[in-house]
TrEMBL record:
GO terms for molecular function: calcium:proton antiporter activity. GO terms for biological process: intracellular calcium ion homeostasis. Its main location: membrane. It comes from the Eukaryota. It comes from Glycine soja (Wild soybean). This is Vacuolar cation/proton exchanger. It is a multi-pass membrane protein. Residues 95-251, 284-365 form the Sodium/calcium exchanger membrane region domain.
Length: 375
């Protein structure tokens, strides 16, 4: 009796061992199958994501057009640009052309700042501010070239100097004021090295403009008319060299001394407010090129209508060149600087406003001095 019970237990034990041994390869094989299925699912979703992120995808193109040209309410002013061009060729009424061109450039400037902000997600704040200042100054560059070809030297001088003052005072002041109101419970900070470098470059630009003017007004030049032009060209070369060094300093030392200040805080209070990437990197670059080209076209019609608008609106050309024209030309910087200040990104705000003034004073303004005699 005991032997039969013992044999029965041994048989049951051997049966369970054999059954477990059989289950082990089954379990391992099933887990391998599941892993393969998961890997297939992952590979499939990655392919779908890559296809959906293509800039040539019809859905992405439609969504990109909607986000840039339709979504914002300020885009209601976009039709005024083509209307200004139509009035230019049909009626020739410079007052209306000037007014409608101002309205047409305003939404383009705001969208230009938006596209630059989207590109700043991929480039970082320092390069993002540099790009914003560069694309924002495209209008001033086109106006300068167009006016120089038309021999409108005073308009170029007044618009560029007004643009420098507008960036340093109006744009930066509005950005700091708006950012201080929105973030009234905290102290907004920015990188000290950025402000020091930009201040030094602006001082150098003032000296480069002041020396030829002093030489001209004191009548102390050795060769009448030639000494001032030679000194202006020499200053232009020095300013361009200094600006190239400034760009090298910005791009090379972005992660070191000149790195942007950590404005997120220790608790990451702004992480929830961070905007999503609505545009890919290539979409942002393409939209920057399109918007800059359209702003430049409208700027040409704007300059062409200045003289006629001055007569029809009873405004002096100096007032239009110093006040109205810089406000329109700096609309991109104005919108972008306020936008970044509201989001507590003062490094980009300073890079946009002061960087734009630095570019104009050291690159645009002195480049004009190379072509024409400014005094």
């Amino acid at each position: 009796m005991m032997g039969s019970v013992l044999e029965d237990k041994i048989d049951r034990h051997s049966f369970h061992d054999h059954h477990d041994a059989d289950d082990t390869p089954l379990a391992s094989s099933s887990s391998k199958v599941l892993q393969q299925l998961h890997s297939f699912d992952f590979e499939d979703t990655s392919v779908v994501d890559l296809r959906s992120s293509s800039i040539f995808n019809t859905t992405r193109i439609s969504r990109s057009i909607y986000v840039v040209l339709i979504k914002a309410k300020i885009n209601l002013l976009l039709p005024f640009g083509p209307l200004a061009i139509l009035l230019h060729y049909l009626t020739g009424h410079h007052g209306w052309v000037f007014f409608f061109t101002l309205l047409g450039i305003t939404p383009l400037a705001e969208r230009l700042g938006y596209a630059t902000e989207q590109l700043a997600f991929y480039t970082g704040p320092t390069v993002g501010g540099l790009l914003n200042a560069t694309f924002g100054n495209a209008t001033e560059m086109i106006i300068s070239i167009y006016a120089l070809e038309s021999n409108m030297i005073r308009v170029v001088q007044q618009s560029l100097l007004g643009s420098i003052l507008s960036n340093m005072l109006l744009v930066l002041g509005c950005a700091f004021f708006t950012g201080g109101i929105v973030h009234y419970k905290k102290v907004q900070v920015f990188d000290k090295a950025a402000a020091v470098v930009n201040s030094g470059l602006l001082l150098m630009a003032v000296m480069g403009i002041l020396f030829p003017a002093v030489l001209y007004f004191t009548h102390s030049e050795v060769h009448q008319g030639k000494s001032v032009l030679s000194l202006s060209r020499f200053s232009s070369c020095i300013m361009l060299l200094a600006y190239a060094s400034y760009l090298f300093f910005q791009l090379r030392s972005q992660q070191n001394v000149y790195s942007p200040v950590d404005e997120e805080g220790d608790n990451g209070e702004n992480s929830d407010e961070e905007e999503e990437h609505e545009l890919t990197q290539w979409e942002a670059i393409i939209w920057l090129a399109i918007l800059t080209a359209w702003v430049s076209i409208l700027s040409g019609y704007l300059v062409d209508a200045i003289q006629g608008a001055s007569e029809s609106l009873n405004m002096s050309v100096a007032f239009i060149s110093v006040i109205l024209l810089p406000i329109v030309g700096n609309a991109a910087e104005h919108a972008s600087a306020i936008m970044f200040a509201v989001k507590d990104k003062l490094d980009i705000t300073i890079g946009v406003a002061i960087g734009s003034s630095t570019q104009i004073s050291m690159f645009v303004l002195l480049d004009g001095a190379w072509e024409k005699k400014w005094t």
